[in-house]
Write a structure and sequence with these properties.
Helices cover about 60% and strands about 5% of the residues. It has about 375 residues and is α+β, with helices and mostly antiparallel strands. The protein has a domain at about 125-265. Strands 1-2-6-3 form a four-stranded mixed β-sheet. A two-stranded antiparallel ribbon has the order 4-5. Strand 4 and strand 5 (about 345-350) form a beta hairpin. The longest helix is centred in the C-terminal third of the chain and has 32 residues, at about 250-280. The model is unreliable at about 95-100 (pLDDT under 50).
Length: about 375
């Protein structure tokens, strides 16, 4: 019995530490089943974990999310070569961004007014005001109204659910069952799966309520005022031409698109603004210089517009530095190899996940030649 146990243990170790890794760039040894999630989920700053691995493995290495291999590129030269110069198509990804600047300016003006009112009382909840402003921008685009008055409680509940969901999806058991759905049937993972379902349901309940309200009140002959209304009109238009079609402009699609826009837009933007406030409060000289530039370019009776951007060089640098210094996500957006490619002498086979870990580049002294972990003092 002991001999049989030792045989299977040796077989498991051989497979885990050699066989499954033999065609990938070297990297930190993974644990069976868990992979490197234990290291990634450690209390240390996530970018520091990747920086240490980058130095040890010369900028390119493989980590394992459970049993899923992921080739990570942390070196700037390798990243540029892989994604721009040599293999742009083979490792390509496509993302789009749509601007609606007027809606943003309206909410910013409302935010500034509320902050001025708060200042008179001596108590100013800047973070809460920023969150409500960002949420109102998103909700205005999607459903045509801001979170004001009695609607503010609605936003606070939605914001709470989104925050809890972001915390949930960054937990190691959640990452594991998302990559290996069969794990959700085991009691330990089932609890995390059910928590995720519950949080997602609360967010989808809000979205479904908004869509139903639009369906009830929509005037198909009036001018379109928001995304949901435009989508509902297009559903009707497509049904008139092609008949009912669940695969093209469906209610499920509308709900999922609204979900993506809410989750992608809310937490990332709010966190960026919070860090910007913290950095500027800790570096009043940077704040003073940015304000001086704003005063010189923008009149006191109007808000900043995109037309001013070309003249606000220092402010652009401050914004870029804030975005460099923060680390929003545990992992960056991943790519997938569409063909076999060779990166730094390593064969990356078709279908392999490739992760350009941009946070490592943004904290790389070789690229930036600056002191790390503090905001740049431009000057």
């Amino acid at each position: 019995m002991i001999e049989l146990f030792l045989f299977f243990l040796g077989l498991l170790l051989f497979y885990n530490y050699y066989w499954k890794r033999r065609h990938f760039p070297p990297g930190p040894p993974p644990l069976p089943i868990l992979g490197n999630l234990g290291s990634v989920a450690s209390p240390r700053p996530k970018y520091q974990v990747f920086l240490d691995w980058s130095k040890k493995y010369n900028g390119i290495f493989t980590i394992w999310i459970g049993e899923l291999p992921c080739v990570v590129i942390c070196d700037y030269a390798l990243m540029h070569s892989a994604l721009v110069k040599d293999h742009a198509e083979a490792l390509s990804g496509r993302y789009q961004f749509v601007e609606h600047l007027n809606a943003i300016r309206v909410e910013v003006a409302s935010l500034l007014k509320r902050l001025e009112e708060d200042e008179k009382t001596g108590i100013c909840d800047i973070i809460g005001r920023f969150d409500a402003c960002i949420g109102s921008v998103i909700n205005n685009l999607l459903f045509g109204y801001s979170f004001e008055g009695s609607k503010l409680r609605e936003f606070l509940e939605l914001k709470k659910n989104i925050q809890e969901l972001f915390i949930h999806i960054n937990k190691s058991p959640t990452i594991l069952y998302m990559n290996f759905p069969w794990l959700k049937h085991f009691p330990y993972f089932k609890r995390y799966f059910e928590d995720g379902v519950y949080l997602n349901k609360k967010i989808f309940d809000f979205l479904e309520q908004q869509i139903k309200e639009h369906e009830k009140n929509i005037d198909f002959n009036s001018e379109t005022t928001d995304f949901c209304e435009a989508f509902l009109k297009e559903i009707k238009h497509q049904e008139e031409i092609h008949g009912p079609n669940k695969d093209n402009y469906s209610y499920v699609q509308l709900k999922n698109v609204c979900y993506d826009l809410w989750l992608a837009g809310m937490e990332t933007t709010a966190t960026t603004c919070q860090f910007a406030i913290i950095y500027l409060l800790n570096h009043p000289e940077v704040l003073k210089r940015a304000q001086k530039e704003l005063d010189a370019v923008v009149d006191n009776d109007r808000l900043v517009t995109m037309d001013d951007k070309s003249q606000l060089h220092y402010l652009q640098a401050v914004v870029s530095e804030v975005q460099r210094a923060i680390n929003l996500l545990l992992f960056n957006i991943s790519h997938k190899a569409l063909d076999d490619v060779v990166i730094d002498g390593h064969l990356i086979k078709k279908g392999t996940i490739v992760l350009p870990q941009i946070s490592c580049v943004l904290y790389d002294e070789k690229v930036l030649f600056i002191e790390i972990n503090v905001i740049i003092i431009f000057g």
